[in-house]
Design a protein that fits this description.
Largest sheet: 10 strands, antiparallel
Low-confidence stretches: 1-13, 255-260, 347-352, 463-473
Radius of gyration: 26 Å
Structural class: alpha+beta
Number of helices: 15
Number of strands: 10
Distance between the termini: 84 Å
Helix content: 40-55%
Mean pLDDT: 78
Order of helices and strands: HHHHHHHHHHHEHHEEEEEEEEEHH
Shape: globular
């Protein structure tokens, strides 16, 4: 990369020093680290071996070499100094802070990475981001990291290369892909670096990349690769939702007591609670927080060993309706062709947008889309279909940017719904269930004139008594 260094230095000289974007506490903490632990001056050589001392992992799976390589690319150099490392850390901080809009790679890497191929750059970046997520979500203090699964990473690289967006350089195409569906590409990397270099004294906030996915064992549908994709896809939607909750809590008198951290609570699992609209409504209804729906399916028209994993982020509580409803959300496919379908429609002047999902137990309709369903579970709660088509003026979700229009039928193998509203939402749902149970008990004890057995059957058919209490002859 020696040929690019002079050009990079020229460009760097014409833009603000990114270190100025870091709080003074972070700079002082880093300078103290260099002096007290590394015994290095700002311009002294910083070897990869010395860099590794900040990451006490049992086995890094090549992770630290990836990070060191990225820092060298940012610095347009073959090796680092403490000053160059701090500059690179500041650049990644700027990128992670900008995830609500884009991943501005062109501002981080001053050149068009002329000395390496675009695929090499993408492969390295995606591997580092994936392993950072695994490191953050590990339950151990000094985890052993496995290498990022290369076949999975290569499939993402191919998808980015196929992404439909005008771009004059590989970096611009990656920026377009990130802005469309994965703006949090830098969040997990920055969170790891934050904790290793600034965490003890920094006033900065750690991005929530590792919190925007269920923990190990919480779901039967997601391996580490799919959990990472889910975190990428949901980071923007969940960050916006959390900001709204924080603002609401600040305005309320008891806001200090409200739980604002994300928790993933399993509300419903088809194999455990039963595959039916009735069971879905019972376990997901009257829950006051946002939810995430995950479907595991088998495509009927394709011979694939990898399941079809679909999902939706539902921002507003579930309700029964004959039309589409909702105030924002997200649809996504995690397997076998990962892709995010972010919302398109901007809020109207009242601050709400409707048309994201539909739930009508009477008509046995559960689906997502707006103008038309993007995916829907059929009336038998055993099958469904999934499609992408050209957007219209009424569309609320984007179309596929890596494939043309398509439609496929599927067999539903599993469905899971997670609640993200924390203890308050769970308590509210439990309170409502207790109220309904007491109300049903009162109605069941009402002295209805006429035949007692007939009265009990009427109450049971109305759902106010368990059906097993009725003798159907």
């Amino acid at each position: 990369m020696g040929n690019s260094q002079s050009s990079g230095d020229t460009i760097a000289a014409n833009r603000p020093d990114p270190i100025e974007q870091l709080p003074a506490e972070c700079i002082r903490s880093f300078e103290q680290l260099c002096q007290d632990e590394w015994h290095l001056e700002p311009s002294d050589p910083l070897s990869e071996e010395t860099f590794r001392t900040r990451f006490p992992t049992v086995n890094d799976g090549g992770y630290l070499s990836l990070l060191y390589r990225i820092f060298c690319w940012i610095s347009c150099a073959d090796s680092l100094t403490p000053r160059k490392l701090l500059t690179a850390l500041a650049q990644i901080h700027i990128a992670a802070r900008s995830t609500s809009e884009s991943s501005p790679l062109s501002t981080i890497f001053p050149n068009t990475i002329a000395s390496i191929s675009a695929d090499e750059f993408l492969t390295t970046l995606l591997q580092a981001a994936f392993q950072s997520f695994c490191l953050l979500s590990s339950a151990t203090t000094h985890p052993s990291l496995d290498p990022a699964p290369l076949a999975f990473i290569e499939s993402l690289v191919a998808q980015i290369n196929a992404f439909d967006a005008p771009a004059s350089s590989p970096l611009e195409k990656v920026d377009a892909w990130c802005a469309h569906g994965a703006p949090a590409i830098w969040s997990s990397i920055w969170a790891v670096l934050f904790l290793r270099f600034f965490g003890a004294t920094s006033p900065l906030r750690v991005p929530g990349a590792a919190r925007t996915a269920p923990t190990h064992g919480a779901t039967t549908l997601l391996n580490d690769e799919r959990r990472w994709l889910l975190a990428l896809y949901l980071e923007r939607a969940m960050s916006m939702e959390k900001k709204e909750r924080e603002a609401k809590a600040a305005r309320s008198s008891d806001g200090a007591e409200e739980q604002l951290e994300v928790s993933w609570d399993l509300l419903y699992r088809g194999s455990e609670h039963g595959f039916s609209f009735n069971r879905f409504e019972y376990h997901c209804g009257n829950y006051s927080g946002p939810t995430v729906v995950l479907l595991e399916c088998r495509q009927r028209d394709k011979d694939s060993s990898e399941p079809l994993i679909l999902g939706a982020f539902v921002k507003t509580p579930w309700k029964k309706s004959k039309s589409f409803w909702g105030e924002g959300g997200a649809l996504f496919e995690l397997s076998p062709h990962p892709e995010n379908y972010p919302p398109l429609q901007a809020p109207n002047p009242t601050g709400t947008t409707s048309g994201y999902c539909m739930f009508n137990p009477e008509k046995k309709v559960l689906g997502f889309g707006g103008d038309q369903f993007r995916f829907q579970i059929s009336t038998d709660f055993e099958t469904g279909w999934y499609r992408s088509f050209a957007t219209t003026r009424q569309s609320v979700y984007s179309s596929s940017r890596t494939r043309g229009p398509f439609e496929t039928d599927f067999e539903l193998l599993e469905i899971e719904v997670f609640g993200l509203g924390g203890a308050k939402a769970k308590k509210s749902q439990a309170d409502y269930r207790r109220f309904e149970a007491k109300d049903a008990e009162k109605r069941a004890n009402v002295n209805v004139s006429g035949d007692a057995e007939t009265a009990r059957m009427v109450l049971a058919l109305a759902g106010l008594l368990p059906s097993e209490n009725v003798d159907r002859g």
